[in-house]
Amino acid sequence: MRRLSLLFSVFLLAGNSVAATIIDVDGTNVDFALDAGEKISVGDVLSLPENCFAKVTTVSGRRVSALLGTCADPSKIIPGIVANTVDVEEVEKNVKIDESKIEPLASTKESYFSIGLGLVFSPKAKMDFKYYSGATQLSGNAEFDFGSAISLNGEWSQFKKYSWNNGVLLSYVNMKLDKGTVALAGQSSSGTIADSDLSILTAAYAGKYRWHTFYLPVYAGLSNGILNSKDQFLKSVTTRVFVALGAGYVINDILNLETMLNVHTTYSAGGTYTSSSGTYTLVPEVGSLTYLQIVIKAIF
């Protein structure tokens, strides 16, 4: 959190002041809501009780963020208090800014490019299908468990506070297929699967609503998953549509942390499956691949 140490010796109100109401206080970062019709600019100074002042750092519509100077009693700076702008030139004549006390403020960026490293937990794919034994049509299903994996992510996004932000995401993950279960003809067959892995390249819209240090990320796009396997049925499995929802936290100005629930639709061209009761032709329906993911993002 960035702190601005200000030593004030006078309190001068501007002739035409602008009113704003405090809606959130986080340490020395104060967020305001402007009154209807009011306008304010970055660099303007707001006067508060206890002979305190706050300097405007960002403006997004009627949402305003400002840095709080030293106060007689900062605990009295709470939501609901109305502040007014003061004459900046007059105040600066009597204000000393200690530059050595200025520290980086977490999340000052209004857009960013990031490179992320993620950990994928418990990927599981499920598919329903029709299968034929001669002229007879029946229903079956399959489940596949993958091992945990590392993902690589690149993203550009807007990042304004108290706003909806737009962006784009490109990600890649490779996960090993550990075991599978197929149910058909009244029988269930399961076991480990060797030498099979799924590689997924995803391009998606990256939207997020950001508050101050927390934000809600939403992703939607297309993925191209290829399952490398010697099995005829498995090697035709692909992924198509991708959606994700999660929660994000701004650690500081260069690191974000996200937890996500990711879902890909899956599809297979089908194939033949042989069990103890015979050989069947499989016609898959749309399935899903789901997994949890934690991503640490380096912000540029």
Describe this structure in words.
The protein has 300 residues and is an all-beta fold. It folds into 2 domains: 6-101, Elongation Factor Tu (Ef-tu), domain 3; 111-299, Porin (Beta Barrel). 2% of the residues lie in helices and 66% in strands. The chain contains 1 helix and 21 strands. 33% of the residues are buried. Residues 1-15 and 95-106 have low confidence and may be disordered.
Name a few traits of the molecule:
300 residues; mainly beta; Elongation Factor Tu (Ef-tu), domain 3; Porin; 2 domains; 13-stranded antiparallel beta sheet; six-stranded antiparallel β-barrel; 2% helix; 66% strand; elongated
Mean pLDDT: 82
Binned strand content: over 45%
**What level of helicity do the residues show?**
under 10%
Residue stretches low in confidence (pLDDT < 50, at least 5 long) are 1-15, 95-106
CATH structural class of the largest domain: Mainly Beta
* Rounded radius of gyration (Å): 28 Å
Principal-axes geometry comes out as: elongated
Quickly count the domains: 2
Number of helices: 1
CATH-assigned fold name of the largest domain: Porin
- CATH level-two architecture of the largest domain: Beta Barrel
**Structural classification:** mainly beta
SSE topology string = EEEEEEEHEEEEEEEEEEEEEE
N/C terminus separation: 18 Å
Please summarize the sheet with the most strands: 13 strands, antiparallel
Count of DSSP strands = 21
